[in-house]
Amino acid sequence: MVWMPPSAQWRVLRRVCATKVFSSQKLDSTQTIRQNKVQELVNHVGECCKKGEALDIGEAVFTRVLNSISNTFFSMDLGHYKASDKAQEFKHIIRAMMEEVGRPNVVDFFPIFGLLDPQRVRARMKGYAGKLIEFLDGIIDERLRLGASEIMESKGCNDVLDSLIQLMMEENSQVSRPHLLHLFLVSICLGFST
Fold first, then answer.
1. What structural domains and CATH numbers belong to the chain?
2. What is the pLDDT of residues 166-190, one digit of tens each?
3. Which has more pLDDT, 191 or 154?
4. Domain of life here (predicted)?
5. In 33, 76, 78, 99, which residue has its Cα 20 to 30 A from 89's Cα atom?
6. pLDDT > 90: percent of the chain
7. For residue 107, which of 92, 124, 93, 128 has the smallest C-alpha distance?
8. What is the distance in angstroms between the CA of the first residue and the CA of the last residue of the chain?
């Protein structure tokens, strides 16, 4: 969306982001989640200190940030240390993308090599993005299969996915499933880049 030229689709996505994803009301409603994740980090550090165990602070912070983002978007923790295969897969994809972005790339210094992709960075990132989209598509499938309307009523429409599914299900909606997938992809990447 960031690189799209202004068009009707761009305006729709911009409005959705402004009202459903990054609105001050939506961000304020997730303040409790963020506070809980910070408290979990403090508790985890305290437990490691009491036990005299070594603490990988990078891993601990990464896990808490991942859980904060995944709770905001999907109302589930995807970054537990001893998590399910699904959560481990998500964590692996995000970590691999972060490592790829942080790695020096010849193309950054010599843009003329951009089309050649000599270090295969673009190819690997495209693969990771594809895996992440498949993963997100699975979460959307699961939420739709469980019945989005029942979940929204029971939770009061707390997470971003519920809000976007509700918007997508409206009659004459301009928001489609590919829009949801790409909004989540961009939002997750932005969440980890800040």
1. 8-193 (1.10.630.10)
2. 888 888 888 889 888 888 888 787 7
3. 191
4. Eukaryota
5. 33
6. 25
7. 124
8. 17
